[in-house]
Write a structure and sequence with these properties.
Helix content: 10-25%
Radius of gyration: 23 Å
Strand order of the largest sheet: 1-4-10-9-6-7
CATH superfamily of the largest domain: Cupredoxins -  blue copper proteins
CATH architecture of the largest domain: Sandwich
Strand content: 25-35%
Distance between the termini: 99 Å
CATH topology of the largest domain: Immunoglobulin-like
Shape: elongated
Number of domains: 2
Order of helices and strands: HHEEEEEEEEEEH
Number of helices: 3
CATH class of the largest domain: Mainly Beta
Number of strands: 10
Largest sheet: 6 strands, mixed
Length: about 160
């Protein structure tokens, strides 16, 4: 019995020591370790799907203190994605966001509407995140949402008077 109590004590002390090391790395050296500890269990933002409007995909979602909205769009059509932010929902973590696959780096999120514009050329799942790496969210690009074919959007209209 005495040996079992000693082993439990050593395990508890080890867990406490490991927690202190992780916290020290996170706080003093700004090493983003904590995100890997809870990335699989934290909730994701609300998912929004773009709508087609005059040759552009438009979507809007709310920025919260913990999440950016997820987005679904169609490949090949320009996107205007509006992130709506309320002042008390912006903090040091979500104040700057990046979508590296679409060339958006450290865009500042301000109270009100924040528009991100890009044209996805490939389908797949792309990630965007806050500056600290704690709010990883997805942009899913699909081949079709039933919008017009991107190749037809850029093709010139046939000339009716040609002959």
């Amino acid at each position: 019995m005495k040996k079992k109590g000693r082993i439990e004590f050593i395990i508890v002390v080890g867990v406490v020591a490991l927690t202190l090391v992780v916290a020290t790395l996170q706080i003093l050296f700004d090493v983003p370790i904590v995100q890997y500890c809870y990335a699989l269990v934290r909730p994701s933002g609300k998912e929004v799907t773009a709508v087609f409007d005059n040759g552009v995909q438009r979507a809007a979602g709310d920025v919260t203190i913990r999440n950016y909205p997820s987005l679904i769009v169609q490949r090949g059509i320009p996107v205007e994605f509006t992130l709506n932010a309320v002042p008390n929902q912006i903090d040091h973590c979500n104040e700057y966001m990046s979508v590296p696959d679409f060339g958006i780096i450290d865009m500042q999120i301000v109270p009100g509407a924040n528009m991100i514009c890009f044209t996805p050329q490939e389908s797949g799942i792309f990630y965007y995140d806050c500056r600290t790496g704690n709010m990883r969210t997805t942009i899913t690009v699909v081949e079709s949402l039933g919008f017009p074919d991107p190749n037809e959007l850029s093709a010139p209209a046939p000339d009716e008077h040609a002959g």
